[in-house]
Design brief:
The structure is a single chain. This protein has 284 residues and is of the alpha/beta class. The chain folds into two domains: 3-66; 89-277, Rossmann fold, CATH 3.40.50. The chain is built from eleven helices and nine strands. The strands form two sheets. A seven-stranded mixed sheet has the order 5-4-3-6-7-9-8, sandwiched between helices. Strands 1-2 form a two-stranded antiparallel sheet. A hairpin with a 2-residue loop joins strand 1 and strand 2. Helix 5 packs parallel to helix 6. The termini are far apart. The relative contact order is 0.11.
Length: 284
């Protein structure tokens, strides 16, 4: 069967299954199976597809129709121009998180701490963009850190990125170090919001990376409350948030004595990041 015929059939199957933008996903999966760049897939559509590849493609399409995320089927996700390994053990990197990257890169930093690093996409992207910087990523999930280790090594960032197992700041105990930048994309989905998530997220991504099983703000409370020993004077604390959490997280930071608190919107105009700065000198 020609690639064009396979693509048409797969698109119809995904649309019938209610997959958002099924045609796009059908193309991405076919490009993956054929091992061609997605942007050049059209050149290969008139050609026949080998029977064994047809079987693989049909199986992937069937799983996508069951709402398994494309990144879990291909094992890869593009984030800020780099390809990252993605598994069901980590949060799928999202385009909205690039708002945090852009905001972090807007000012210089020499060291960064990424709390709840997951796949490592935030920490590793920041280090890849700042060739002299060093950083630490922490995560409670050893399975997630295994993915981060793979991504770190693939990007050849072993000398500059340390990855530590534990909850938030706990792995830093005993370290005599402060960071110019602390970043995090913590679990911020409230428990009562979980049923309304898309099946790709609710049923296939790690629950501990999605929700705090409460009001969606408990992780911010922990991050803000524990920042002082680790954030250098004049350093920045930046967290990704849900669209309705800007005011609440800003208040947490203000009460903690942080300055220049501001909410940054993503490309869709939704509140996406809260940024704040530590006083320039201790006690100010």
């Amino acid at each position: 069967m020609r690639g064009a015929d396979l693509l048409a059939r797969a698109t119809a199957e995904l649309v019938a299954a209610g997959v958002p933008d099924g045609g796009r996903d059908a193309r991405r999966l076919l490009a993956h199976v054929l091992k061609v760049p997605p942007g050049r897939l059209t050149l290969f559509l008139p050609e026949p597809v080998a029977p064994e590849l047809t079987v693989i493609y049909n199986a992937l399409v069937a799983r996508r129709a069951e709402r398994v995320p494309v990144s879990h089927l291909t094992g890869r996700r593009l984030f800020y121009g780099r390809e990252f390994l993605v598994t069901p053990e980590v949060l799928d990197p999202r385009p909205e998180t690039e708002t945090l990257i852009e905001a972090a890169l807007a000012e210089p930093f020499g060291s960064v701490l990424d709390l709840g690093t997951g796949s490592g996409c935030i920490l590793l992207t920041l280090l890849a963009e700042r060739e002299a910087a060093i950083g630490v990523g922490t995560d409670l999930s050893e399975a997630a850190l295994n993915v981060a280790f793979w991504n770190r090594n693939a990007l050849k960032l072993e000398p500059r990125a340390a990855l530590e197992t534990g909850s938030w700041y706990e792995p830093l105990a005993g370290m005599n170090e402060q960071f110019d930048l602390i970043v995090s994309n913590p679990p911020y989905i409230a428990l009562d919001e979980m049923p309304g998530l898309a099946p790709e997220v609710r049923d296939h991504e790690p629950r501990m990376a999605l929700t705090d099983e409460g009001d969606g703000l408990s992780c911010y409370r922990t991050i803000v409350a524990g920042h002082a020993p680790w954030l250098a004077p004049g350093g920045r604390l930046m967290v990704e948030i849900g669209p309705s959490q800007g005011a609440a997280v800003s208040e947490l930071m203000t009460r903690a004595g942080l300055r220049d608190v501001r909410v940054i919107s993503d490309l869709d105009g939704r509140d996406r990041v809260v940024s704040a700065t530590a006083p320039a000198e201790s006690g100010q």
